């Protein structure tokens, strides 16, 4: 066999390989079809879609639907477009992701390197948070937010997502730090570093890969959340997902499919962006060479 | 009062006591090696000195200051870990100065100290690299640099050479010894390698099962092991331990041992204090290098006993040839010059330097002579 294929475990003949590629390409097309439909229809005038040309490329190219979806579409009672809701989502997601990730890292640090009696039980209890169905906490959480004066605000939404995110982020960081060499922590202790100094100077700089995992997971979940947004936000603090729903579901006037498609892509873009930017840090072996020879 | 006093230190995990009343006093400038098999408590003891493990009872004092409850960073100690424990996100220079930075030393002084240490260890050209880009030996040096830069009262080494390959290990061993002679610092060094212990130390504490079996200079440990464990643990190949009977010959005690053909040989002791054991079984300890051919026997020894026995196996090892035979029903290894003509299966005259022989009580396994 040639050099290029030496490190593949399974060697395949030309026919098999062609077959595999054909099947894979078909699957890829199948999965990309909805995106294609969304993209082409978001740059068409409405008449082309209603005229039956759903699959065809646009005759008259226009970015008007995008402008409308962003700035002037009718959402609820105001013709504001998705813009203010986009910022609501950002205001909700950034603190929620940051705080839940940092708290998860701190929890993981304490649960692995500053162990105490009952820490495994505590960790087990925290894991429960990953399995709680959101529906059963809606009413108690609404009451809690009311008592804290956070009802109907992006702060309230952030708070809810932080609380629900801690379970997952703790799980990630605990498992990551469990294999982090304890000798490094001991060396830092002898060097005179305190609890937070060890965390900031030794542990966090080595947590790149797991922090990326945590951020991607939290960002995607929180950005895409609909239930909490619909339940706990008021008209001024609704996130993007809820606004998109209101845009698409509005029962008055003509259904502007091209605007809906553009809006849906706008709502999906931040998560795509996070994957593309952060995804490549996944593979970085930041721990290489810390211990042993 | 020593420089570092370990006073009846005991360590328990729950109901399990892993260290029992350890008493060691280390003088300033001493190189103490804690040696023993895995699980003997040597690393636990080192961690207790470092403050990484609590002391269950007893006291550890450095310069007469009780260390119980004192944070590791306030004990003025430095530690070199088995895995080196270099911070992966910092450069070599930052690794070395991290401890100084944490203790609030101003930057110019840190840089100066770092340069001095780097020069001493010849790692100046590595200061800007990350630990990941270093070889095992270089990491080892950096780990030592990080300890040296603090100028601590006591250095603690936790099996620092066990991750290096055999050749590098020997080089670094010499280097650590040189460093100790040059700086005259107090060192406590943990290893399971008895050769490391013998070469490096000024004193050795041989540990087993949470007890200090013997504390003494390398010479004492090697020549007068306190019990059978110390005798067989220290030295390579291990000391031969042979069942023998004490008999009186010309009014002096001697050991009666059985040869491989069932005949018996008499090996007279140099010590008279075995006389009360007449007629009793003992265990005779003979180091491999004290059994030779008659020509190579130690000329200064006043007590060379000869015996004729069958050679079982010969193992040439370059400079020496290891020859085994049966004594008292046990395999006994002797160490010959490589040019001695030995053939497996043939009879051979062995010369035993009985001046160096040791006797143990078979019940208590403690040394009874010399």
From TrEMBL, chain A:
Keyword terms of this UniProt record: Membrane, Transmembrane, Transmembrane helix, Transport
Chief place where the protein resides: membrane
Protein's membrane topology: Multi-pass membrane protein
Transmembrane regions: 19-39, 92-110, 122-142, 154-177, 198-219, 261-283
InterPro entries with a match to the protein in the record: MetI-like (IPR000515), MetI-like_sf (IPR035906)
Residue ranges of every copy of the ABC transmembrane type-1 domain listed in the record: 86-278
GO cellular component: plasma membrane
SUPFAM superfamilies tied to this protein: MetI-like
Highest taxon above the source species: Bacteria
Localization of this protein: Cell membrane
One GO process term, biological-process aspect: transmembrane transport
Family that this chain belongs to: Belongs to the binding-protein-dependent transport system permease family.
Name recorded for this polypeptide: L-arabinose transport system permease protein AraQ
Lineage of producing organism: Bacteria, Pseudomonadati, Pseudomonadota, Alphaproteobacteria, Rhodobacterales
Gene: araQ
Automatic annotation (TrEMBL), chain B:
Coiled-coil region list: none
A GO cellular-component term linked to this record: ATP-binding cassette (ABC) transporter complex, substrate-binding subunit-containing
Example GO biological process: carbohydrate transport
SUPFAM superfamilies linked to this entry: MOP-like, P-loop containing nucleoside triphosphate hydrolases
SMART domains in the record: AAA
Gene3D superfamilies per UniProt: 2.40.50.100, Nucleic acid-binding proteins (2.40.50.140), P-loop containing nucleotide triphosphate hydrolases (3.40.50.300)
Name the record gives this protein: Trehalose import ATP-binding protein SugC
Source organism of the structure: Shimia marina
Organism ancestry: Bacteria, Pseudomonadati, Pseudomonadota, Alphaproteobacteria, Rhodobacterales
């Amino acid at each position: 066999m040639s050099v290029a294929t030496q490190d593949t475990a399974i060697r395949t003949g030309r026919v098999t390989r062609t077959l595999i590629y054909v099947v894979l390409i078909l699957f890829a097309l199948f999965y990309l079809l909805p995106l294609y439909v969304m993209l082409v229809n978001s740059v068409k005038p409405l008449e082309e879609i209603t005229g039956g040309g759903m699959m065809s490329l646009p005759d008259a190219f226009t970015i008007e639907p995008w402008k409308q979806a962003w700035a002037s579409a009718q959402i609820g009672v105001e013709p504001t477009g998705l813009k203010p809701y986009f910022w609501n989502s950002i205001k909700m997601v950034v603190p929620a992701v940051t705080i839940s990730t940092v708290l998860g890292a701190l929890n993981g640090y304490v649960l692995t390197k500053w162990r105490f009696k009952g820490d495994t039980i505590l960790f087990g209890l925290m894991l429960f948070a990953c399995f709680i169905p959101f529906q059963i906490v809606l009413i108690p959480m609404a009451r809690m937010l009311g008592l804290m004066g956070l009802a109907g605000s992006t702060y309230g939404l952030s708070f809810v997502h932080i609380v629900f995110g801690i379970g997952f982020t703790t799980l990630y960081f605990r498992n990551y730090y469990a294999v982090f060499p304890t000798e490094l922590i001991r060396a830092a202790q002898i060097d005179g570093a305190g609890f937070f100094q060890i965390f900031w100077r030794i542990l966090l700089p080595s947590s790149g890969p797991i922090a990326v995992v945590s951020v991607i997971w939290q960002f995607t979940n929180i950005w895409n959340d609909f239930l909490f947004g619909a339940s706990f936000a008021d008209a001024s603090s609704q996130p993007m997902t809820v606004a998109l729903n209101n845009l698409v579901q509005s029962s008055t006037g003509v259904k502007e499919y091209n605007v809906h498609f553009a809006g849906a892509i706008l709502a999906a873009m931040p998560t795509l962006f996070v994957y593309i930017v952060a995804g490549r840090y996944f593979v970085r072996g930041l721990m290489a060479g810390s211990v042993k020879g | 009062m020593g420089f570092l006093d370990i006073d009846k230190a005991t360590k328990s995990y729950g109901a399990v006591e892993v260290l029992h009343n350890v008493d060691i006093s280390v003088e300033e400038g001493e190189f103490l090696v804690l040696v023993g098999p895995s699980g003997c408590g040597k690393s636990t003891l080192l961690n207790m000195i470092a403050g990484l493990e609590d002391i269950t009872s007893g006291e550890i004092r450095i310069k007469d200051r009780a260390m119980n409850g004192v944070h590791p960073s306030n004990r003025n100690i430095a530690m070199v870990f088995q895995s080196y424990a270099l911070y992966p996100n910092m450069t070599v220079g930052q690794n070395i100065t991290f401890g100084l930075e944490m203790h609030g030393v101003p930057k110019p002084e840190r840089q100066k100290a770092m340069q001095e240490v780097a020069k001493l260890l010849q790692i100046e050209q590595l200061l800007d690299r990350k630990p990941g880009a270093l070889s095992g030996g270089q990491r080892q040096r950096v780990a030592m640099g990080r300890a040296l830069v603090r100028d601590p009262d006591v250095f603690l080494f936790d099996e620092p050479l066990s991750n290096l390959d055999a050749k590098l290990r020997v080089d670094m061993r010499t280097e650590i010894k040189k460093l100790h002679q040059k700086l005259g610092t107090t060192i406590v060094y943990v290893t399971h390698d008895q050769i490391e212990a013998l070469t490096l130390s000024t004193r050795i504490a041989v540990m087993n099962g949470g007890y200090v079996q013997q504390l003494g200079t390398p010479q004492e440990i090697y020549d007068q092991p306190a019990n059978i464990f110390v005798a067989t643990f220290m030295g390579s190949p291990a000391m031969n331990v042979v069942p023998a009977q004490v008999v009186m010959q010309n009014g002096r005690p001697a050991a009666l041992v059985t040869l491989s053909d069932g005949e018996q040989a008499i090996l007279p002791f140099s010590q008279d204090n075995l006389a009360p054991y007449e007629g009793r079984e003992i265990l005779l300890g003979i180091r491999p290098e004290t059994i030779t051919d008659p020509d190579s026997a130690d000329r200064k020894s006043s007590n060379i006993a000869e015996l004729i026995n069958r050679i079982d196996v010969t193992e040439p090892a370059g400079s020496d040839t290891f020859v085994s035979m049966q004594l008292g029903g046990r395999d006994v290894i002797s160490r010959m010059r490589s040019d001695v003509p030995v053939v497996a299966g043939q009879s051979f005259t062995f010369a035993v330097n009985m001046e160096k022989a040791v006797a143990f009580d078979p019940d208590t396994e403690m040394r009874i002579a010399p």
